[in-house]
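ARCHIVE CARD
Drawer: 12
Card no.: 0347
Subject: one protein chain, sequence and derived structure
Cross-reference: see card 0346
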Amino acid sequence: MLKVGLTGSIAVGKSYVLSVLAELGCVTFDADKIAHLVMEPGRPAYEDILREFGETVLAVDRSIDRKKLGAIIFGDEARRKRLNEIVHPRVIEEQNRLLGEAEARDPNGIAVIDAALMIESGGYKKFDKLIVVYCDRETQAERLMRRADITRGDAEQRIAAQMSSEEKLRYADYRINTAGTFEETRQLVIEVHAELLRVQGSVQIPQL
């Protein structure tokens, strides 16, 4: 199985790129959704987060309120690092389990994992190829403001807290610029998928 990492900074359009790759036949996983899973009540990361950050990060149903947690960590590098130390090993463990199951089902398939901190954590080294999704800073900030319903200042702070797109692009095997329309981005994804099929050794290239 060809294992592909998909990464990029916050609000650059990774989820849309992942959805197109899924339509094209790739097995896809979202590390953020895996993180949600390992932070659920009853999971080890849940208890560790409560011990570290206190019950102020809980929602009414006593699940982790990620918005409350985000407000704490985005302005504090040490707290953000501590959260990653708690959650990341559990995400990797679950990710490896899911990849193992996917490979058992289809040894000749393509598996893509979307993870924002793949380069920062060094996790990208475990993949055969790396796709970096990016767009210009203004588009990124506007998307984040709309998505998270936050001010420009808060959006800029969150963007600055992560590795820049320029730095991430240095690690890329393939680059996808999402600054254009959905259809333009979709075509770029189709082209990258065709390259992945060639790397994998497949002869059939489906078109959507």
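Annotation on reverse: The mean pLDDT is 93. The longest strand covers residues 2-7.
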